[in-house]
Amino acid sequence: MESDEDDFVFYGTPIEREDDLTSRKKKAIAEASGQLRTLPAWKQEVRDEEGRRRFHGAFTGGYSAGYYNTVGSKEGWAPQSFKSSRKNRAEVKEQNILNFLDEDEKAEMEGRLLGTTSQFDTFGFTAAEIARKQAEKEQKQRPSIIPGPAPDEIVVPATESVGVKLLLKMGWSRSRSIKDSHSDALYDARRQARRAFLAFSSDDPAVKITESELIKGDSENFPEQLVDDDQFSKSTPVFVLNPKEDLYGLGFDPYKHAPEFREKKRSRLSSKRGPGYSKNFSTRDRKAAPGFGIGALEELDAEDEDVYATGFEIEEAYVQEVEEPTTMSLENQRKKEQKNQGDLPGFRVASNSDYKMERFDSPLIPKDFVPHHKFSGPLEINCKSYEVTPPEVSPPEDGNLKLLIEGVANLVAKCGKLYEDLSREKNQTNPLFSFLSGGTGHDYYARKLWESQQKCNDQTSRQLDGKMPPSVQRLTAESRGQILGETPLEKSAQDPSSTIASTDIQLQFNLTDTFTKSTSFNELMDEEKPFKDDLAKQERFEQFLKEKYKGGLRTASSSLAGDMSEAARAQERLSFEAAAEAIEKGRQGRGSKSSILSSMDFIPGGVMQFTSSEVESKKDPLVEDILRKKMYPKREEFQWRPSPLLCKRFDLIDPYMGKPPPAPRIRSKMDSLIFTSDSVKVTKVDETVSSKKDISPFQQSANKDMTKSITENETEVDVEVENIERPVDLYKAIFSDDSDDEGEDPSIKRVVNQEKKAEVANTALSRLIAGDFLESLGKELGIEVPPDVPYPMQKSRNVASQKEIVNEDAKTDILKSENNGKIKSPLIRSQDYDSSSEEERSRKGTNREKSEEYKKVKTSGTRRRDYSSSSSLEEERSRKRSRHHRRKRHDAGSDSSSDDDRDRYSSRSKGRRTGSSREKSRGSEKHSKHHKHRKHESPSRSSRYINEKDSSHSKREKKRRE
Amino acid sequence: MSVEDLPRKEVNVLKGHEGAVLAARFNADGNYCLSCGKDRTIRLWNPHRGIHIKTYKSHAREVRDVHVTPDNSKLCSCGGDRQVFYWDVATGRVIRKFRGHDGEVNGVKFNEYSSVVVSAGYDQSLRAWDCRSHSTEPIQIVDTFADSVMSVSLTKTEIIGGSVDGTVRTFDIRIGREISDNLGQPVNCVSMSNDGNCILAGCLDSSLRLLDRSTGELLQEYKGHTNKSYKLDCCLTNTDAHVTGGSEDGFIYFWDLVDASVVSRFRAHTSVVTSVSYHPKENCMVTSSVDGTVRVWRT
Fold first, then answer.
1. Which domain range does residue B179 map to?
2. Residue B237 Cα, gap to closest chain A Cα (Å)
3. For this protein, what is any one GO molecular function term (chain A) (predicted)?
4. pLDDT single digits (tens) B260-274
């Protein structure tokens, strides 16, 4: 800083404005005296660091106001926050005008406030107000221990409302409900009288009891008394304060957590006081099921409903006891209500009433009345009017007129005579319509009308079912056929279902397939169309059905199936026979829908299938039951893998000990949602297969191979996406120290890793996230993922001896160790590293001979090398004959077809992309795991490594090819 | 054992539960019994003297099943709150809560060493929980069932679960096999015969089925009672001579094991008999019912 200042040269002295200076000085003095600081907050002014008043706002502000630029009050414009009136009821005050007046305004208004004088204080409000004010004042004068204003409940109005006064004058006493005191005036009086009587008769309590019992027998008076007594406690609650009879502290409720005891005590008390007293304390909600409320945060749903609460009544003796008086009181009440309903006090129901219901008898029906109404329908009118057939008349010359006549005739025939009258009326002046009223063309009109009426009648004749006299009918082909008992042609005779186009039927049929519940209509169609696939055949089948069931005229069968051979026709006939039978069965037992459907299944086939289905359809429920019994219990066996810990806890030896962990389960549904391509299935299958360990690693290597090949073919972006892994694992892969986990038990590790793997490999979301993470990480570190790594290329060229390979591996190790400092495409690198170290270990673990083989194969430089190398490893490691055998077979096959395979894989690469990514992520996961216990040479683990090794091989292979 | 020896005389009524009692179980030696119910409590009783000893409260919903270790030191229970509770008997405290079931838990059992609790849930799974470690994650989840698992039973080496999908599945830990016996009817309850050779499965078609465990053969069917909508228990007597089970009309039925004839039936409760448990040695039985009582029966 000082050096900076050295660069500037100052000339003269800076001029300060006078007022600024003075004000600032003043302020400084004020501050020094501490005046400002002592000022209240709203009087302090906001100043900047130079002591100037802070200017607030550009246009409308001005100097900042007090209260930190608010409106000048402490609260500012802040809206009043909501205050619940639930807890502090006493604090809620009604707003009145005084709340909105300033102090001086109030002072002005003092003494001029309007209020009702006590004389006119009808409802006692003013008195209450005054009393409250008085109380407040008093409180101010002598502050009590309890702070705050006196609660309203304590302050009681000094005067009574006029209503109360009136009631009191009318003889009403406090604590009695108003309504009852009036309606029961009669009974009140009676009771008074009774009391007097009792008091008069004797003072002996025993006699009293008998007396009361007598009254009880009366059953009118006694309950009344009870009810009345109750109403004492029922009415205005202010006066029904429970007297404090116990010695507990004020407000202490000994039954707070045991309400049932309160009930007990009450009942005891009431029993002391006398029978029937406790009826109002009867536990009413006892019966409301075993009600166990659920927490406030829980929702009441289906599982909470009381499934057991149906029909049965829970037997609880003491509830019954308590309930007895309740029912009694209920009865009493009912009686009372009965009595009260009809009459007013002082009135009686009249024994004979003046009012009489007038009743009218129903009219007498004449004996000859027939309760059948004949409609004077237009059709019949027409028929009558043209009973005599009008003679044939030649149409008028005028074409238009002829058309008009015909049209009108048609309409009239259809709509009735009314239409004729209407149109005649309307068109009286129109010369064209003169034919209606006997003008030109009337004869022709009459003839036409008759004809069209005939037509109409024909159409309706079927519905009217012979209502029309047959003599009137003109014989059509159909009617003649009907008379002769012929089967009408398909179109008109068959039920509407069959007239529907076949496509419709198919559609509906499909619908019925999907919705198992079908209407009978659809069912019918199902039955009718067992050969829906073959339309011609279906047609023939329908024909067959017609012949079979309906009789009538038959067409030569050759017309339909003319081009069929005799044998074929016979066979078809058989199948038709069977189908018809099945349909019949289906019709009989609509319930057995399955049989119908099953009969549909064999459709295109011949007789054999058909008969089998027929057997099925014949099944009786009884037979089915037997069959079911035969079918069940059905035993199946599956493989099941108990977790090692479970075995341990059950003190059993893990049957799967030493075997590779099972395929990871798919945890989330997201997986299946995201990976819907067929590749998923392939990989899944792959996984399960590998878990069973029945398969040679060759196949896996092939799988890996192809996935890898796909990956390599993808663009760089895809590579990035595929190399997704959990970020944490990635960090581990890069930075973790190999030695830190050495001491652990590898088997346990594997289990843990297995789980982790499952998570990582299968959680698609995390993978996606990780992908993004990787991208960002790469950007941050400033590394771009190179499309190809020089190392594998080098390796591929290096096809010399085993030693060299080892050297290579050493190199990679070095490379890897360098990675910690200089990260260079961590993913690809790590994979390479993984594979290489894998090789190293496997090589170490195996003997010389094997490595020789390996070398030999390597030099061959073909794809085959991969397989054989893996197989050699396999040979070394696996002791299972079967697997061995199988592998060999695979090997033999693969040699010839490897090239083909490759082609196939590449062509399928698109579909496999997702799968490959999964594969890869798993691989990389393995890698991180492998990192941890690299130093452990456990033979059991090598089985897992095989895959990785294979994949690494194949990968290298791929690179080379590129 | 003759019919006269069947426990048909009511000696004690254990009252205390409010609402339905969903299960009643003898402990291993038969001196005590446990009951649990809709009132969210588990109660420990001395059934022979009719004394209520202790109440265990912690469940948030109804308790559906309870089991006690052979040494009477720990309890496990489960219920509508989807949790399995692991209790200390003496203090009445919950030692551990096992969460993980996605639905109500219908049944729990301890294994022989009381080291594992296996629970059967509405979420179509059996879950094994570790009592030894502090892990609250299940050791194993068996989710091969196709429907709600209603009941679970354990032997030394096997886990047997009965499900609404109609299967009784035996998971043999020793050989790592799952044996599924499909009965074609929803299975409510699985219980082992005392000789360990048979499984008694209570089905929702109002019948009990006795299965041979080695072959999966259906040995016998016991009918006469009604069981169509509730989860009812069934069991064999301690001599394996009779089969007993409750009915939805409040009756208790005894069948002859071999010829499946109803040798005795009597009305025990006013409502659905949810659970029956037979004394391991004596001719004694406890039954629980929706009427809120647990009743103790003797000859």
1. 23-236
2. 24
3. RNA binding
4. 889 988 898 888 999
Partner-chain contact A650 B61, CB within 8 Å:
no
DSSP H helices in A477-532: 477-484, 490-493, 496-499, 502-514, 520-528
For residue B69, being part of any structural domain is answered with yes
A728 in Cβ contact with A924 (< 8 Å): no
CATH code of B137's domain: 2.130.10.10
Q: Is residue B263 part of a domain?
A: no
* The predicted structure's pLDDT at residue B161: 93
Q: Which residue of B18, B40, B41, B139 to mutate against A (max A Cβ within 10 Å)?
A: B139
Residues spanned by CATH 1.10.10.790 within chain A? Answer: 378-484
Alpha-carbon distance B181 to nearest alpha carbon in chain A (angstroms):
4
Distance from CA of A633 to the nearest CA of B (A): 4
Least confident of A555-564, A873-882, B272-281: A873-882
Residue A750 main-chain phi, psi, to 5 deg: -65, -40
Residues of A in contact with B80 (CB under 8 A): 303-304
Place of tokens 């961590």: A826
Q: Which residues of A touch B114 (CB under 8 A)?
A: none
Q: Name which of A300, A645, A650 to mutate to probe chain B: the one with the most chain B Cβ atoms within 10 A of its Cβ.
A: A650
A16 contacts chain B (CB < 8 A) = no
Tell me the percentage of chain A whose pLDDT exceeds 90.
0
Q: Does residue B214 belong to the interface with chain A, where contact is any CB pair within 8 Å?
A: no
Touching check for A301 and chain B: CB below 8 Å? no
Choosing among A310, A630, A637, A640, which should be mutated to test the B contact, i.e. which has the most B CBs within 10 A? A640
Tens of pLDDT, residue by residue over A53-69, are: 666 655 555 665 555 65
Evaluate if residue B170 carries a pLDDT over 50: yes
Q: Pseudo-torsion of CA A65, A68, A74, A75, nearest 10°?
A: 110
* Average pLDDT of span A182-194: 60
Determine the distance in angstroms separating the CA of A656 from the nearest CA of chain B, rounded to an integer: 7
- Is A629 in CB contact (< 8 Å) with chain B? yes
Question: Is the minimum CB–CB distance between B111 and chain A shorter than 8 Å?
Answer: yes
Q: How far is A690 from chain B (nearest CA, A)?
A: 18
The chain-wide mean pLDDT, for chain B, equals 90
Which CA distances in Å does A682 have to A128, A260, A734, B121? Answer: 88, 67, 31, 33
Q: What is the ipTM of this complex?
A: 0.89
pLDDT band at A537 (very low <50, low <70, confident <90, very high): confident
d(CA A684, CA A676): 12
Strand pairing partners for B118?
Answer: B109, B128
Q: Which residues of B touch A637 (CB under 8 A)?
A: 177-180
Give me the sign of the Cα torsion angle B226, B228, B230, B231. positive
Average pLDDT over residues B73-100: 91
Residue B209 belongs to some domain of the structure: yes
Interface of A with B in 171-190 (CB under 8 A): none
Asked if B157 reaches chain A (Cβ–Cβ under 8 Å), the answer is: yes
* CATH class, A378-484 region: mainly alpha
d(CA A595, CA A610): 12
Specify the number of domains making up chain B. Answer: 1
Give the CA count within 13 Å in the CB-facing half-sphere of A740: 6
Whether the Cβ atoms of residue A405 and residue A444 lie closer than 8 Å to each other: yes
Give the model's pLDDT for residue A75. Answer: 62
In a domain, B260, yes or no: no
Going by the DSSP 8-state scheme, the letter that residue A470 receives in this structure is T
Q: What is the pLDDT of residue A348?
A: 73
- B153 by DSSP, 3-state: which? strand
Lowest mean pLDDT segment, chosen from A83-87, A699-703, B137-141: A699-703
pLDDT of residue A420: 75
User: Residue B123 carries which side chain, given as an amino acid letter?
Assistant: D
Closest Cα to residue B15, out of B276, B251, B295?
A: B295
Q: What per-residue confidence (pLDDT) applies to A119? A: 66
